[in-house]
Amino acid sequence: MSKFVPDVALREGCRRWGGRRQGEFLAERALRASRRRGVARRAGEVPCRVEDRFVVELGPGTGPITMALLEMGIYEEDLFCLEQSARLVEHLRLRFPRLDVVQGNARELNELLMERSGNVNAIVSSLPLRSYPESILVKIIDEMGMCLEPEGIVIQYTYDLRKSRSPLLGAFNRIDSKMVIGNFPPARVDVFEMN
Predict the structure, then answer these.
(1) Cβ 81 vs Cβ 43: under 8 Å
(2) C-alpha–C-alpha distance, residues 49 and 54, integer Å
(3) How many angstroms separate the CA atoms of 106 and 125, rounded?
(4) Which of the 8 DSSP states describes residue 3?
(5) What are the percentages of helix, strand and coil residues in the chain, rounded to 5?
(6) Domain ranges of the chain
(7) CA-CA distances (angstroms) from residue 177 to 32, 156, 159, 163, 192?
(8) In this structure, how many other beta carbons lie within 10 angstroms of the beta carbon of residue 98?
(9) What is the pLDDT of residues 36-53, one digit of tens each?
(10) Among candidate residues 34, 16, 129, 109, the one with its CA nearest the CA of residue 74
(11) What 3-state DSSP class applies to 19?
(12) Cβ(14)–Cβ(23) below 8 Å
């Protein structure tokens, strides 16, 4: 197995986001832990495990990205999962009993995060943003921007592989984009920073 070497954009984004000791980059370990899960392995390529980090996962579904984040070193108390489906929330709470899993809508993200102290360092989103009406999309993007700290990042997973403009552009700058062809279905992982 060849050693994973992150792209320059990912490495630089991680250094800036992680701060101490060049961000303590854990991508190689995260990839080793989740190599079989296609798109889930991309979760570990940007977030860095550094003290006092807080990550929000939007739309965790059954939890493959959640598991990859935990395996890469994000502590359970530093991960907040927001899922709209009551059935999936129940599943996630059984699968990850110590994790903060909340049923709610991303349009109310800041309200749901009020009990938390400090800003969000990273948002990992599997929401189907390209399928939302513009009014809902604008509200979700506004919520992301309000809770994300200035040096924070957004990682967006999408299964819409068309060469169309990402809904996050305008509010955020894309710093990396990768296709994950080995995933079923194939996916794209975009990484953004604040404008």
Answers:
(1) no
(2) 10
(3) 10
(4) P
(5) 40, 25, 35
(6) 8-194
(7) 21, 9, 13, 12, 9
(8) 10
(9) 355 555 555 544 444 557
(10) 34
(11) coil
(12) yes
CA-closest candidate to residue 153, choices 77, 4, 45: 45
Domain 8-194 has CATH 3.40.50.150: yes
**Cβ neighbours around 100 below 10 Å, total:** 16
Residue at token pair 């349009």: 107
Q: Considering the chain, what is the average pLDDT of its residues?
A: 75
| Cα–Cα distance list, 57 to 7, 8, 69, 80, 134 (Å) | 23, 24, 9, 6, 21
Q: In whole angstroms, give the CA distance from residue 104 to residue 179.
A: 29
Pairing of strands 148-158, 120-125: parallel
**Which amino acid belongs to residue 148?**
L
Residue with the bigger pLDDT between 182 and 64: it is 64
- Partners of 176 in beta bridges: 191
How many Cβ atoms from other residues are within 10 Å of residue 160's Cβ?
12
Nearest to 52 by CA among 79, 78, 32, 15: 78
Tokens of 7: 């792209």
Cα–Cα distance, 180 to 96 (Å, whole number) = 26
- Is 137 exposed, middle or buried (CB count within 10 Å of its CB: 0-12, 13-18, 19+)? middle
Q: What is the pLDDT of residues 112-153, one digit of tens each?
A: 998 776 679 999 999 998 889 999 999 999 999 999 988 889
Across the chain, how many H-helices and E-strands are there? 6, 7
